[in-house]
Design brief:
Blueprint (H helix, E strand, L loop, with lengths): L6 H10 L3 H5 L9 H19 L3 H6 L3 E3 L2 E3 L4 H10 L18 H14 L1 H20 L2 H13 L2 E6 L15 E4 L5 E11 L8 E9 L10 E7 L1 E3 L5 E4 L2 E6 L10 E14 L5 H37 L18 H29 L3 H30 L10 H8 L9 H13 L5 H20 L8 H22 L3 H6 L1 H27 L4 H14 L3 H11 L2 H4 L10
Parallel strand pairs: 3-6
Antiparallel strand pairs: 1-2, 4-5, 5-11, 6-7, 7-11, 8-9, 10-11
Helix pairs in contact: 1-3, 1-10, 1-17, 3-6, 6-7, 6-9, 6-10, 7-8, 7-9, 9-10, 9-11, 9-12, 10-11, 10-17, 10-18, 11-12, 11-13, 11-17, 13-17, 14-15, 14-17, 15-17, 15-18, 15-19, 17-18, 17-19
Length: 578
């Protein structure tokens, strides 16, 4: 099916849902304005529709292939990626200091969502390149930066991160890959890495791997891991590419979804690498890369959900089955009440998750790292879980045709399922939210967020009635949601560790349910005040969200009150059978 990015929705949230005026007032974004953002979004929408989207089905049906020591990407991927590079999309949100366009990250949330919707498997390549570039920029020596960053900023060279090993997944402490000092400023890297996304391919001339490895006599666990830069091909002094480094893909994973993304098993055989950051501080350096990646994995969830929603909407307009109430025979199923309910549910929840992702990026643009850190696990987990849920509803709207491959609905569901898993499982995101982001500062950052939600409630109250838009139900839902969130937060701050971790996921879901609704209300209230024509339909979405999504926070609160007991009461020995 065709794909058309929801530019109006994105622009509405950028204009009214985030504090764009504060962002553009910063010196580094002084050249960014509404007209420029509109041009960028419309250009990205055309590119996603005409260049990237046509490769999606081919990637699913014809995965990347490994021939000897080289991986060949799916049909059409190389040409589409080269067009991506030539059009300058990779450099959009890179800082101007390193050769990027220097636009705010919140704008790239919108443009990257378009690329992920068009082809999630292909979109992973520039996502990882961006994250790797920023890790190199933050932690590498000036010599390494000068060699590698210019080509990575443009996307001419791509990036990959090599963390996982068979015995070291979410817990990277057991990493066994070895690094030996060569005595000349380089290190020899030996070991095997698995699940390396876009670890090898033919879309770019060089691939820059960031590899976690352990030096001899390093401390045990994660404190003894260092980070190394290993290029696929060495770079000569004149900038040309030299010999190939001694590491290769030795296998490609056969996956449930994202078939077009080459997921490699990489073998390092004394490969030459350069230290990035300090010795034994590799995991801290890698988190620079992972934190941005987690934001954009949440965006991926929204993106694949949007693609699934559009497919379901198109099918609902085309499919005739039964006669909807009040309609003539031959009316399409979009007029059936339950089909309409599924569609509005998909749209409202996607809009809320999109708003959270933009709020996270906006906080980072403003330098509010505390807020960005608090919201990142919520963005990643809520967005990726929602992507799976919405893609599943998309199959349901298609009925039997959703269960067969020809409509593409099944691909959306398969592709979506990885997002809650990689870049830190969503359970880990919930533990990060509760353990690091909430309890470490005694709830200070969360209390600031709750105070902002109270301001949004006042703003929404003042806008109710403008343009005949009644927001009473929204105000009431937000008032209840704020109390629920504050109560749950107090419970978690005073809970024992096993109680807190047992309810970490319900707490994250509670936060997202309230926050997503509040951000929709903020955008509606500001949109009404500005006289935006899109404010009225957005108000309708906000009312649906207030009635259907935000009240779910109350159910999570009841579970949170119970702590670990419901989780551990049932004997572990009888989990298999009574």
């Amino acid at each position: 099916m065709t794909f058309q990015a929801p530019v109006n929705a994105m622009q509405f949230l950028l204009r009214h849902g985030v504090d764009m005026d504060k962002i553009t007032a910063l010196p580094k974004f002084e050249d960014t304005n509404d007209e420029l953002i509109g041009d960028v979004l419309n250009g990205a929408a055309v590119f996603a529709r005409d260049v990237v989207a046509p490769t999606n089905w081919a990637g699913d049906q014809t995965p990347a292939s490994l021939d000897g020591k080289d991986v060949t990407a799916s049909p059409g991927f190389k040409d589409a990626y080269q067009s991506f590079v030539e059009s300058g999309w990779q450099s959009l949100a890179m800082s101007s200091e390193i050769g990027g366009m220097g636009l705010p990250t919140v704008v790239s949330v919108a443009t990257n969502e378009m690329i992920y919707s068009a082809n999630m498997a292909l979109g992973l390549c520039p996502m990882l390149t961006s994250s790797a570039t920023k890790a190199i920029e933050a932690h590498a020596s000036e010599a390494l930066k000068s060699v590698y960053i210019p080509k990575m900023v443009t996307g001419e060279w791509t990036g990959a991160m090599c963390l996982t090993e068979p015995q070291a997944g979410s817990d990277l402490g057991p990493v066994r890959t070895k690094a030996v000092d060569n005595g000349d400023g380089t290190y020899s890297i030996t070991g095997q890495k698995i699940y390396i996304t876009w670890g090898d391919h033919d879309c770019a001339d060089n691939i820059i791997h960031l590899v976690l490895a352990r030096l001899p006599d390093s401390p045990a666990g994660s404190r003894g891991i260092s980070l190394f830069l290993c290029p696929k091909n060495f770079v000569n002094k004149d900038g040309s590419l030299g010999e190939r480094n001694d590491f290769y893909p030795i296998g490609l994973e056969h996956k449930l979804g994202i078939h077009g993304s080459p997921t490699c098993v990489m073998e390092f055989n004394g490969a030459k690498g350069w230290l990035v950051g300090e010795i034994n501080r590799g995991l801290a350096c890698m988190f620079t890369m992972m934190n941005e990646a987690r934001l954009f994995v949440g965006v991926q969830g929204v993106a694949i959900g949007e693609r699934a929603y559009q497919a379901a909407l198109q099918y609902a307009h085309d499919r005739v089955q039964g006669t909807p109430p009040g309609e003539e025979p031959g009316a399409p199923i979009v007029h059936h009440p339950d089909v309409r309910r599924m569609l509005i549910d998909m749209k409202a929840r996607l809009m809320g998750a999109r708003a959270i992702a933009m709020a996270t990026a906006a906080a980072d643009d403003l330098g509010d790292h505390g807020r960005a850190g608090l919201l990142t696990p919520i963005t990643k987990s809520y967005g990726s879980d929602l992507g799976v849920d919405v893609a599943s509803i998309g199959v349901q709207v298609h009925g039997g045709m959703g269960y067969v491959e020809e409509t593409g609905a099944a691909q959306h569901l398969r592709d979506s399922r990885i997002a809650p898993i990689y870049e830190g499982t969503n359970g880990i995101q919930a533990m990060d939210l509760v353990g690091r982001k909430l309890r470490r500062d005694g709830g200070e950052e969360m209390r600031k967020l709750i105070a902002d939600l109270k301001d949004i409630k006042i703003l929404t109250e003042s806008a109710s009635g403008i343009g005949e838009s009644d927001l009473t139900v929204c105000v009431r839902a937000l008032d209840t949601g704020i109390v629920t969130l504050a109560t749950a937060t107090d419970i978690l701050l005073n809970a024992k560790d096993d109680d807190a971790l047992s309810v970490a996921t319900p707490y994250l879901t509670l936060c997202a349910s309230v926050l997503s609704g509040a951000l929709l209300m903020k955008s509606v209230a500001n949109g009404l005040r500005a006289g935006d024509d899109h404010a009225k339909p957005m108000a309708s979405l906000a009312r649906y969200h207030a009635l259907s999504v935000m009240p779910r926070a109350g159910a999570q609160l009841e579970f949170i009150r119970a702590g670990a007991n419901p989780v551990f009461d049932f004997p572990v020995g009888q989990l298999a059978d009574l």
